[in-house]
């Protein structure tokens, strides 16, 4: 009887040891799973959620007026300098703004990345000239939102969340390049409203690229983000025509202090619509057409 009790006691100890071992193994397994979940969540967050708080991109050149004012800042964003450089335009536009008292930051094409657009409102520009490629045509020829080109090659892993939510779209200079996989990140209106940091302050935006106002999607996004007026082409436009028209527009609107409507009218008396596409420069919203630059600056 005693030997039997002893054998029962040993079996119970063995079962208890095994049970403790199972508990320890289960605890170790759960800790391991928890670590995987934590690491995966962190990696997913850093991959899907765009970074913020990055330092502002420095301009390529800066033009200062004789009596610089901290209140008057302008930017010329020249993404086209990579494919259609025009030194004469850059100097003429910068000098017109500089003579009106603006400190002008000039950004050459390689600076025009997704990160650049993300931080654009943080610079405090009152006047922005966007000499960038743009399109409103998606694959299949269906008109989509107005989309600005960046100089940053598109990938499927860099801005995953913004690609999934169509804040960024792949854009190409030609259908042939698209078929070859040569695409760039394109900035959509939802990127402006939801991914740009901060807001614009009484800013006037001149969009020089094709189809900048073929539909109001991008103009509405900039106004929602704090811009006061957005000027763009109704359809496609050649590089030479948009360069000439923009310099004229700046002179009439910024230097001569005409209303936006008056500046546009004078521009087309001198330059005319695009000869190939009949495209005209128009403004959004329409109620800004009777405002001068001084009127716009003084609005709170």
Main attributes of the structure:
41% helix; alpha/beta; seven-stranded mixed β-sheet; 300 residues; Rossmann fold; single chain; 18% strand
Characterization of the model:
It is a single chain. The chain is an alpha/beta fold and 300 residues long. The chain folds into 2 domains: 1-48; 61-298, Rossmann fold. Helices cover 41% and strands 18% of the residues. It has 10 helices and 11 strands. Strands 1-3-2-4-9-10-11 form a 7-stranded mixed beta sheet, with helices on both faces. A 4-stranded antiparallel beta sheet has the order 5-6-8-7. Helix 8 packs across helix 9. The model is unreliable at 37-47 (pLDDT under 50).
Tell me the helix content.
40-55%
Overall 3D geometry? Answer: elongated
Q: Give the N-to-C terminal Cα separation.
A: 98 Å
CATH architecture assignment of the largest domain? 3-Layer(aba) Sandwich
Overall number of structural domains: 2
Number of strands: 11
Helical segment count: 10
Structure class: alpha/beta
Using only C-alpha atoms, the radius of gyration works out to: 29 Å
| CATH top level assignment of the largest domain | Alpha Beta
Strand-residue proportion: 15-25%
Q: What's the rounded overall pLDDT mean?
A: 88
Regarding quaternary structure, what we see is single chain
Uncertain segments are 37-47
């Amino acid at each position: 009887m005693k030997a039997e009790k002893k054998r029962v006691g040993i079996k119970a100890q063995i079962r208890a040891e095994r049970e403790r071992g199972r508990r320890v193994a289960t605890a170790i397994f759960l800790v391991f799973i928890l670590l995987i979940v934590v690491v995966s969540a962190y990696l997913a967050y850093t991959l899907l959620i765009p970074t913020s708080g990055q330092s502002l991109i420095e301009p390529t050149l800066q033009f200062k007026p004789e009596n610089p004012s901290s209140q008057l800042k302008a930017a010329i964003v020249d993404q086209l300098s990579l494919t259609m450089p025009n030194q004469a335009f850059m100097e003429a536009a910068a000098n017109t703004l500089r003579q009106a008292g603006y400190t002008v930051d000039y950004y050459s094409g390689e600076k025009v990345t997704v990160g650049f657009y993300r931080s654009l409102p943080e610079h405090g520009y009152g006047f922005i000239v966007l000499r960038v490629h743009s399109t409103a045509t998606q694959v299949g020829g269906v008109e989509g939102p107005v989309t600005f080109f960046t100089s940053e090659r598109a990938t499927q892993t860099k801005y995953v969340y913004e690609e999934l939510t169509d804040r960024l779209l792949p854009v190409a200079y030609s259908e042939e390049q698209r078929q070859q996989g040569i695409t760039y990140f394109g900035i959509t209106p939802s990127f402006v409203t939801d991914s740009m940091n901060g807001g614009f302050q009484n800013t006037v935006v001149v969009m020089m690229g094709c189809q900048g106002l073929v539909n109001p999607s991008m103009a509405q996004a900039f106004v929602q983000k704090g811009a006061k007026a957005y000027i763009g082409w109704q359809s496609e436009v050649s590089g030479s025509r948009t360069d000439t028209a923009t310099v004229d527009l700046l002179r009439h609107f910024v230097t001569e202090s005409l209303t936006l409507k008056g500046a546009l009218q004078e521009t087309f008396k001198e330059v005319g619509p695009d000869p190939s596409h009949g495209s005209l420069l128009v403004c959004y919203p329409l109620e800004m057409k009777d405002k001068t630059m001084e009127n716009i600056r003084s609005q709170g």
